[in-house]
Queue: 3 jobs
Job 1
Amino acid sequence: MTNNQNQTYIIGAIIFSLIGGILLLIMDFGGWYAYNYYAGVRSWGYIGFYELPSGLIFLIPAIFLFYCTWISLKTLQNTNKTPNKNSLRLGFFLSLTVFLLALIGGIIFILTLEDVSDWWFDGAFYGGLLGGLLTSVFLYFVLKNMN
């Protein structure tokens, strides 16, 4: 593979890890709306980073993705040096972890909603899921090309 292809993969990792990390911090993970017609009770809610202290759980995956952004930027800047394979490998595993955490978190979110009329996933879920998945895919290709 050419150096230009590796640069393209690195830029993809930068974009998706940065957007995913930001979405984890500024958007809701998911929300719900419930209405009991007979009792006349309506309730709604959401979960996200800014719902402290429980929202701090979103800080860890965001930090993981920001690490991927940082290590990808360092790799892009050092074009005449060999990239640090161990740092890229760690970024790959951290981004894959973010993807799995978002997937498992989404399943838990769905399973814990009982008697809810409507529920939805929001930007933080998609930021973690797609940001983690796409960052890990791009970093995988960079690592594969380094062999």
Note: The longest helix spans residues 85-111.
Job 2
Amino acid sequence: MTLRSRLEALPARAKAQTPGLLASFIVALAATFLSEHYGASAMLFALLLGMAVNFLSTEGPCAPGIALASRSVLRIGVALLGMRITFSQIEASGWAALTIVVVSVVATIGFGFLCARLFGFNRQFGLLTGGAVGICGASAALAIAAVLPHHEKKERAVIFTVIGVSTLSTVAMVLYPIVARSIGLDSRATGIFFGATIHDVAQVVGAGYSVSDEAGDTATVIKLLRVFMLLPVIFVTSAVLRMRRGARSAAPALPGFALAFAALVVVNSIGVISAAVQSAASELSRWCLVTAIAAIGMKTQLKEVATVGLKPIVMMIGETLFLMLLVVALLAILPS
């Protein structure tokens, strides 16, 4: 199809995709409202609400827009995460904190591979769950899923991972302050502990500032360092998939949304972006991700998620406990 024919078809495509995009955004609005009033993850609410209106993806005019939201809107949201990070934040965190982040992320993904092998799952599921637990929860699950080859169980795996990691993140927000006090961590070490172990950004912030301002500030920076780890993980995953036989359906070795993520980190680090624009981009990223997960929920059958069994649940709990114990050990070894 030529560029001219594509441009001519654009109005018709936009008209076809608008109903599904609006439906996904309305679910995202409802999820955000519930999250603000009841304190749970907006992504978890969006996922559950989306699954409740699953019929929209199979009947009527909404299917094209829902497919677009679950794919393109997702990648825009991941790319905009780069506006939250600067190189000065990475430098200011110190070598010990950076070491904790890198080691814990790599080790947790490796542990995910090991668990997947032990429980009889494929390595992609180990990467998906290990990356979600090790990096940044639901956002990481969505970003990693975007570069994995499509297969019939992929969306079910993503849905399960998002539900599991969001639930475990909320539990961690409640329990980890108790753990930090029981092992005698000071405010900075507590912030590093929260930022390096709790899965989702909102729960990291909630746990950190419930202890002290210093713990909250430190936890937020460490969490953003974990978000930055999305970039090398996505690049390595894409490169490996392309090198493996049968991975022709994988994303390019350098996915466009990952390159955009990296470019935005660089631009944000230069200091030419105002605080207002950074805040707006961060908020737009959040809305894109919530809208995308609502669309993914719409494309999922609840009965399919109910068949996952006990093994994946045990696997994700094990990965979460592994990450927590590893970070506690690294805090004891390295100066905070």
Note: The chain is about 80% helix and 0% strand.
Job 3
Amino acid sequence: MNEFTIGIVVALVAVGALWLWFKSRSKKTVKEVRIFSSIEQLKAIGQLSVYKVLTKEIVTETDHTWGEIGTRYLSWVLSGKKMAMIFEFEIDFRYNLQSPRFEIQEKGMNAYTISMPPCDYEVNIRDIRFYDEQGSKLLPWLLPDLLNGFISGGFSEEDKNKLVDAAKRHARNQALELINNIQSEVQKSAKSTLESISRAFGATHLDFEFSSLHAENVEVEVSEKIAS
């Protein structure tokens, strides 16, 4: 092999080594930027639903949460007509990742601290029905002849709205008790969900800071079958 050939081989080896070095440096830089950028993209997700509870309650007598209107109408239906009320509502636990209180801080190589905003709760009454023990059948909510036969002058639209409000009040009290009892489970679910998303981007260590606030009030929505 002459000197010219040897020079070419040496040059090619040098170029190859230099190309491999730049490639490895390029991969490392792109990887670091991509991970941090992807973690920051969590803020664009919006509402993150992490937990849902569906509860079904069998009511055989009213309590104070139903108020006067519940005592006036429902007590008679439940005791006089020997019926039970099946009360269904759901709670959706969500975090607003677009909240300014949602923060992501880089703590080191692929390590982040995520500060979570307070949890939002959405309560919805799905259905209310009566169970006729004597006829062994389910009856719809606010069956007209069920109440009109008891109330002189009929059951007015105002009466119906008052009963719906009483149902919302009952659901609100029940939901608040449940919400404050399962905070740890909700946070555990949120942590698990965000860990799965973040680790897919390459994050290897995540710390979470949750805002543990005692829920004192929630808004309650009702399904169309109840409101109509």
Note: The first strand starts at residue 47 and ends at 59.
